[in-house]
Specification:
By secondary structure, the chain is mainly beta. It has 2 domains: about 5-215, Beta Barrel (Thrombin, subunit H), CATH 2.40.10; about 220-315, Roll (Pdz3 Domain). It is about 15% helix and about 40% strand. The strands form 5 sheets. Strands 1, 2, 10, 11, 14, 15, 16 and 17 form an 8-stranded antiparallel β-sheet that branches. The chain has a 7-stranded antiparallel β-sheet with strand order 7-6-3-4-5-9-8. Strands 19, 20, 21, 22, 23 and 24 form a 6-stranded antiparallel β-sheet that branches.
């Protein structure tokens, strides 16, 4: 993300530091960092540098699901340097959000800033802590913005806010704020290969609500893995009558999942869902979201060269065990 890194109040130049990273005086920026800092904690993980977290509610910290995925009882460190054990409530790998319940940590609930949408080029900064509770901050700009989008894992995110670079180690889960000290959301490197992404406040509120209520985000579920495929229909007596078809090849079917119970098999090629063509996995994810849990859908498919139809009742996708494995549609 960023041109400078502040560690416990000391600035360290990076090789890319060619211009001042902030539009105002240094004391003014430091004031805004201190405004955000009381809501930020460190989370000790098996990854070097750990992760950051935000006290979003009185007893709930949000952080990066990827960073703390294997920690059922993560250790949180507040501004006083004391370590406090938390309890993982749930994770959503598709948006990279984790929720941890904690009490006694030296932090205060974040000042809610509402649904803020920055402009490209706006100055922003991220606030984190090291595993001893020391304050850290980094500075940069918004590199790109946009409307609602889906992560490569299929999660719906209300606004695209991309930073102008990557994140420093330990900054997954950090608070990202604007020059007025208003928190825009949470930083994550799990949703882009090259840049930090800000998970916006409105997305955090929505996903956190599901995690608190269900322990996971409820999403329509078939229980299959698919990949794009192209084949030639064998129906028709001549080569000229054969049809080139695009669809989704079923590479695995989870036992007792809705697709399994309906008779879908490995090797089937899905062509349509409710008569709408399926060409990419994203097509399938979007159609499932539009239909909802409990809906009955008509799947058109190709099996051994023959066209078939199956009716499948969508289930609720099982809770993810960890963020490194993406659940399938």
């Amino acid at each position: 993300m960023m041109s400078y890194l502040l560690v416990s109040g000391y600035a360290m130049n990076s090789p890319s530091a060619a211009r001042p990273p902030f539009p105002d005086s240094s004391p003014g920026v430091a004031d805004q960092v201190e405004r955000v800092a009381p809501s930020v904690v460190a989370i000790a993980t098996d990854r070097r540098g750990g992760a950051a977290g935000l006290l979003w509610q009185a007893d709930v910290v949000v952080s990066s699901a990827t960073a703390i995925a294997h920690e059922r009882r993560p250790c949180l460190v507040g501004g006083d340097g004391r370590a406090v054990e938390g309890e993982l409530i749930g994770i959503d790998p598709d948006t990279d959000l984790a929720a941890v319940r904690v009490s006694g940590v030296d932090a205060r609930a974040i000042e809610q800033s509402g649904d803020l949408i920055p402009r490209v080029g706006d100055f922003v900064f991220a606030v984190a802590r090291d595993v001893h509770g020391g304050l850290q901050a980094s500075f940069g700009h918004v590199g790109a913005t946009g409307g609602a989008w889906r992560s490569w894992r299929g999660g719906r995110i209300e606004h695209r806010i991309r930073l102008d670079g990557g994140l420093y180690r330990g900054f997954n889960g950090a608070a990202v704020a604007d020059c007025a000290g208003r928190v825009l959301g949470m930083a994550t490197s799990a949703l882009s290969r090259r840049h930090g992404i800000v998970l916006p406040n409105v997305c955090i509120d929505r996903v956190l609500g599901e995690l608190l209520q269900h322990g996971h985000v409820r999403r329509p579920y078939l229980g299959i893995m698919v990949q794009p495929a192209r084949t030639v229909s064998s129906q028709g007596g001549t080569a000229a009558a054969r049809e080139v078809l695009e669809g989704l090849l079923v590479s695995s079917v989870a036992e007792d999942a809705p697709a399994d119970l309906a008779g879908l098999r490995v090797g089937d090629i899905l062509l349509t869902l409710d008569e709408i063509a399926l060409v990419t996995p994203e097509d399938l994810q979007q159609r499932l979201q539009d239909c909802g849990i409990g809906a009955s859908v008509l799947v058109g498919l190709l099996r051994a060269g023959q066209r078939l139809s199956l009716t499948i009742t969508l289930g609720d996708r099982p809770a993810a065990r960890h963020a490194r494995g993406c659940c399938t549609p």
